[in-house]
Amino acid sequence: MWQEVGEGAFRRRYESLDLNVGAVIGGEGVLVIDTRASHRQAQQLLDDLRVLTDLAPRWVLNTHYHWDHCWGNALFPSAQLWGHERCREELLEEGELARTGVLEWMPEEHHADVREVVITAPDHTFGLRHAIDLGGRIVEFRYLGLGHTDSDVVAYVADSGTVFAGDLVEEGAPPSFTDSFPLDWPQALDALLDMATATVVPGHGDVVDRQFIETQRAELCAVGALARAGFVEGAPIEEIDVRSGPYPDEVMRSALDRAYLQLAG
Description:
By secondary structure, the protein is α/β, with parallel strands linked by helices. It has a single domain (about 1-210), classed as Metallo-beta-lactamase, Chain A. The protein is about 35% helix and about 25% strand. Helix 5 (about 185-195) runs antiparallel to helix 6 (about 210-235) and helix 6 (about 210-235) crosses helix 7.
């Protein structure tokens, strides 16, 4: 069911992938934050939106290019699809490669849903910041820097103090580092903390507050410190003792791999 996390700002937490979708209601329509992982899931989202409001979804924001957040885009043909300019580039250039990767590990009973997806990139993009008027209320889209990917953006609903943060913040599981920039991620969270006066909705899991973000920032700084120390010493990643790190060993190895790539330029 929908949870009101700020006046006129809602999130729905779906069991599949523990994904959060946002909906911000204005006088002229609804802004939807992320569209889920398939056409079938996006149709469920549209049905759920009709329970919430009679207003049409006129705007969509993709918080980044990962499939679980934006492969429902095609089911919003009448909405403006917004995202960072690199989100659009990644979906256009690497979308089919991502589909192949998903099919490699996805259980076969879900393959038809994956193959059905028409990968649809945002048709409206921005670099650093953009504001839209939903009809009587303004929502800002902001790029805060490299983090979970190179295209993470947040939706800031200033009049309710609510931030939809996408996967810059991860609750319920360790952050995913596959496409990340661990050395820069803490700075992106610094910028997020400047806005986090009330509720923050992460890409997955339960809603969080400033303290949670500060804790995740400290964990990411610990990852960066371990990576820098190992890199300076010339230690192979597999020889670094990750037991002092904040995340399970497999996650730490993934984070260190990405950090080493950054340190190597």
